Automatic annotation (TrEMBL), chain A:
Keywords: Cell membrane, Chaperone, Membrane, Protein transport, Transmembrane, Transmembrane helix, Transport. The chain crosses the membrane at residues 31-48, 98-119, 152-170, 191-216. This is Membrane insertase YidC/Oxa/ALB C-terminal domain-containing protein. Signal peptide: none annotated. The keyword Cytoplasm does not apply. GO terms for cellular component: plasma membrane. Belongs to the OXA1/ALB3/YidC family. It comes from Candidatus Doudnabacteria bacterium RIFCSPHIGHO2_01_FULL_50_11. GO terms for biological process: protein insertion into membrane; protein transport.
């Protein structure tokens, strides 16, 4: 049952979108992947935007939050209740939510399969009737890169972009002086180096089409973070 | 099956979970809007309620964990 739902709701639409874009964009798989990535990210944009704005606001409210934490130091329950009230009063929500996260994970898996099967010209029978069959799919993009094979250059570029993105994310985080947050900042810094290394590793073993997807997503994230963090006013009005 | 799912949840929590895994330092306030987090809730639900009820409860919980719901504490209820 799950596999049928997954197939009709995730795999088939993604496959058809990719082939449609492939047909439109001069039979270049690379351009099709770039276009598809941008479309997916635009659809997910609202959920990211909301979260980034909240993060920014919270960073500005950090002193107030510290006060509350200090006040209810010995009573965890009262503390979390006070924090919740504070969030509500100032209309911020520091949390993400799991549903969009899971949707993204599933899309990523679907995309993985689509790129694996689609690039090899399989699964053509899954095309919708109104999408013309492109025949054999050329995996060469821009006459340069074979997207069905791993490509170390793309992987390294993606790793560098990933590094920039993590650094940007950490720079936006609140800085405070207590010890536990020192710890977590150290871990953040570790991750900042670890993530790009992992990206290069996976990028140099997986088909370059997937690495290209990751590259475009990362560029999109960098741009998105840059504009959202810039456009949110630096000091939020605090009630209380 | 039950233990396979619990194992997968543990692996998830130890790795890519934004609340319990490598990325938790990116989310200083926690990621999930509910407490306990969705994965923790699912773990407890499957452990306490068994496979079918547990998985159903987990699915409902994740559907509830969307950008339109209010953050709150939400523990597994035992019938």
């Amino acid at each position: 049952m799950f596999s049928t739902i997954y197939n009709t709701a995730i795999f088939q639409p993604l496959l058809n979108l990719l082939i449609l874009l492939y047909n439109w964009l001069g039979s270049d798989v690379g351009l099709a992947i770039i276009a598809m990535t941008i479309i997916i990210r635009l659809i997910l944009y609202p959920s990211y935007k909301h979260q980034l704005q909240s993060q920014k606001k919270l960073a500005d409210m950090q002193p107030k939050l510290q006060d509350i934490k200090e006040k209810f130091k010995n009573d965890k329950e009262a503390q979390s209740k006070a924090l919740m009230d504070f969030y509500k009063e100032n209309k911020v929500n520091p949390f993400g939510s799991c549903l969009p996260l899971i949707i993204q994970l599933v899309i990523l898996i679907g995309l993985f399969q689509v790129l694996q099967l689609g690039l090899h010209g399989n699964a053509i029978e899954q095309l919708y009737s109104f999408i013309s069959n492109p025949g054999k799919i050329s995996t060469r993009s821009l006459g340069l890169i074979d997207l069905a094979k791993p490509n170390i250059y793309l992987a390294v570029i993606t790793g560098i972009l990933q590094f920039i993105q993590s650094r940007q994310m950490i720079a936006a985080q609140p800085k405070s002086k207590n010890q536990s947050s020192d710890m977590s900042q150290a871990v953040s810094r570790q991750m900042m180096y670890f993530l790009p290394v992992m990206t290069v590793f996976f990028g140099s073993t997986l088909p370059a089409g997937l690495t290209l997807y990751w590259l475009v997503t990362t560029v999109f994230s960098i741009g998105q973070q840059y504009f959202i963090l810039k456009s949110t006013p630096p000091k939020a009005e605090l009630s209380q | 099956m039950k233990y396979i799912l619990l194992g997968l949840l543990t692996v998830y929590q130890k790795t890519i979970s934004p609340d319990h895994g490598w990325f938790q330092s990116f989310f200083p306030y926690g990621y999930c809007r509910f407490s306990p987090s969705c994965s923790e809730y699912s773990f407890q639900a499957i452990e306490k309620l068994g496979l079918y009820k547990g998985v159903s409860a987990s699915v409902l919980r994740i559907l509830a964990c969307n950008p339109f719901s209010t953050p709150r504490a939400d523990h597994v209820k035992i019938y």
